[in-house]
Structure formats: C-alpha cells, structure tokens
Amino acid sequence: MSQNVHTEFVNKKVWEMFKKRFKSHTTEASYWSDITEFCRFCGKKAEDTEKKDVDRYYSYMKKKAESGIISPLTVTKKFRELHSFFKFAEEEAEDGAVYRDYFYPYLKNMEKEKGLARSIPVEDMDALLKAASDDLAVYTILTLMYRAGLSSTEITGLNGPEDFIMYGEDGYALISGREEPCYIPRDAWEILMKYMDQRENCQSLFYNRSGRRLNTMYISRMMKKYCQKAGIGQYSAEAVRNCCAFNLFSFGASPKQTAEQMGRTQQQIRRYKGMSYRENLRRKADELVKIRIQSP
Q1: How far apart are CA 198 and CA 275, in angstroms?
Q2: Which of 3, 58, 78, 291 has the most neighbouring CB atoms within 10 Å?
C-alpha cells in the first residue's frame, strides 16, 4: 500500500508505522480503503478531522445501510478500523500533528449482523495468522481454509502430494466429493509447498504427533487454542472458510465462480453476497490476486 499512499490525506510516516501491525495484505488493504474513503469524503487530511466530520460521515453511512446499499456490519467494521487508526495516530504521531479519535463513541451502538453466514473481521484473521506463524502445519491449514475455501472435513481428507496437481502455472487440489479440482491461489500454494518440503511421510497430508490423520475435532480444538493465543473471540473453522466467499464477492466474483471455488451450489452461496468485506475491499475480479498471505 505504501507506494500508493495519498500523502494529501494520510501522513506517510504514521501510516508506515501503523501498517507494521499487520501480517496479511488483506488487512492492510481493508484499513487503507476505509481511511482514504473517509478522508476523501471529508475533503481534508486525517489529522485535520473534526467531530462534525465524523458525525456527518456516520449519518451518510447510516443512510446507505438503511437503504440496503451496505450492511450494518459494514458500517461497524469501517468505524472499528477508523477508531483503531486514529487512536494509534493520536498516541504515536510526531512533528506536532494532532489526531483525535471521534469514532469510538459510535461503536457502542453499532448494530450487529444476525442470521447470515459468519465470517471473521480482517484484523482478527490477521491476529489469528500471526498467532499460528510458529506452526507451519496450522498456518497452512488456516491458509487453505481462508484462501481456497476448503472445509475442515476436506482438509482432514487430504492424503498427500498425490492430491494436488498443476495446470500450467496454477495449482489445484483434488477434493473427494467435488466434481472439479479446487483452485489454490498462488500465495496459498507457496505456503503449502513450504509445508510439503518439511512434512514427514505419513498416510495423510496433516497428522498429529503420532503420525495419525487429523479429524475435525482436532481442528476445532486448534481453532480454540489459536484464537485464545491471538487474543480474539472464539471463531470456528467454518467462519475462516466463510471469509473466502466474502472475499470473492468483494472482488467482484459471480455467484457461479464463488460456488465453484467453495464447492457449493449457487443457491447456498448467495447468503454471502454483499456482506462483510464488500465495501472495504472493492476490486475487480481479475485483481483478486492482490489478496496475499505471507509465509510465516
């Protein structure tokens, strides 16, 4: 993001310090999108923000939510990210710049989304990846769920290198029960190959200390352990997987494309559409490759 910093809105030095907190480019892109969107709306630098600017922005976002253009959860997400940045800037900014966090009071009354597929906020997903960075197997499992949309059952069913193929420069997984191979994004493929290079020769791709195949209960316990380590709420493996569908829709993928990636029907996949990351990560479908996870 730093090469595209709008210096007329955001102090480059403050942004460079702030973004060091993130491991994934997805999180960085989400925060950057919301910060610059807010500044463009106000027509002024972040450090010049006044309470009346935040009040006006909230009214604007509230109207968009009420009209169905965005979801209430999207408004909450934007204000959470803006609060996080402005609080950081308020404490860390130098050179006489003065930032004020006028966003926090609004967070107390933000509406929670109910009855739809649950996903994980990008900052929590980023924290989860950081927490798992010391265990390559766990990191690879999270990456396959988050980036490729594999379920815990599909992951535990993988046997080894024979379940993966290359078509040209692209990698795919041969998943039992799916009619077509599942595309593995390049960043996820690189992490998977790194794991392959150090794994032992066992009967399954992922295994426990005894060399036995993992089961879904193991992954459930894994999620509990690493969510606690990350200091975030308790999320399920399914919530991690849901993020893949949300990201695909955010980048303009069609219900058919998303259904094919997730191994679901178009009818099932429509419950993800328009939710969560859509407003924060608007991109063309052919720019989806810009979502990347770094190797641990």
Answers
A1: 38
A2: 78
